[in-house]
Amino acid sequence: MNPDPALLSPEADAGHPVRITRGRLADDREIIFFDDSEPYLSGTLTREIHDPRPLDPRQLPPHEAAATRTDPLTGDPVTLAAHRMNRTFLPPANEDPLAPAGRGTVASEIPEPNYDVVVFENRFPSLQGDLETLRDEPLFHETTPAGRCEVVCFTPDREGSFATLGISRARTVVEAWTHRAHELQAMSDVVQVVPFENRGEEIGVTLHHPHGQIYAFSDLPPYTAAVQRRAATWTARTGGDLLQDVLDGELEQKVRVIAQTPSWVAYVPYAAKWPVEFMVVPRRAARDFTDLSDPEKDELTRLYVDLLGRLDRFFPGIQHVPYISVWHQVPTRGGPDISRMWLHVFSVLRAPGKLKYLAGAESGLGAWVNDTTPERIAARFRELAS
Fold first, then answer.
1. For the structural domain made of 5-221, what CATH number should be given?
2. CA–CA gap between residue 377 and residue 269 (Å, rounded)
3. Annotated catalytic sites, by residue?
4. What are the helix and strand counts (H, E) for the chain?
């Protein structure tokens, strides 16, 4: 297989050099390796990417099992993916499907004896295929669950987390996110590309191996749509940029700001919903990973690793705080009202051994109640600065 020349940095001092190699798995899913190790950068080692598994070719599930329907009461899209019901769930260490080939007792999804960072199409995707309308009535609207779902393996090691990758490897993951944003946003049916990570059984992870995912949506997710409406209203009323004005307000008040760099600001949201929560926002209106310069990506990587380290020290006696991390990139279509990308990280852990459960008012009505205050959350994050 040949490396992708567009994303291969030939000079050691030219940004962050990564060698990119594409291949296909046995059922024709795409797999892409992002190598930062010297033997691959120099060309001493290359990848063959031969998947020997006897997998059947991919087939789209029937529409009765996979579709996207519009909620007639709210207008929100809801994806149905019944084919995911029996996907892999918390396998033992020797059956890790994200380990390099040959390390376990089951065939790996990654047919190479080692890797640095790798991205491949999800074997059990929620979103897949082209966008087609299946039902178009005033109340009942249904389409195919178009888009794409990918898995991002941060490391070949089953133990560890993003915070323990080291700056260089974490920076390679940022390059992988950039590459995938560039390609997925170019897909005709895609309106937003969202990398995210779920960590911890409390969150509902099905694999312990350090990894994240990328969803390329063909319908604007409800949260993004709500922010877009709010931003449009704000611009119409004030002429301002909602994301910029919120950032300026947080910097002026200071009390919820937890860290800053020349290009990025981390703060706890004014109306934080979760017991542990923060956002990271660029100072300028960078729309997505492809819009970031190498120095901005360097800063973001160091800041993100630092903040995740603080997160793991947030509660005394807890070494691995469960969290969800979502990278909100600006939609590719639908208006210019959202000016920039942002990162949102939050945890369901409210105290050692105690989880925040979304009960009646929150789950049923979206009427959030937080058991702490954003200012207390921010103060704790500042205390943990190394």
1. 3.30.428.10
2. 10
3. 211
4. 7, 17
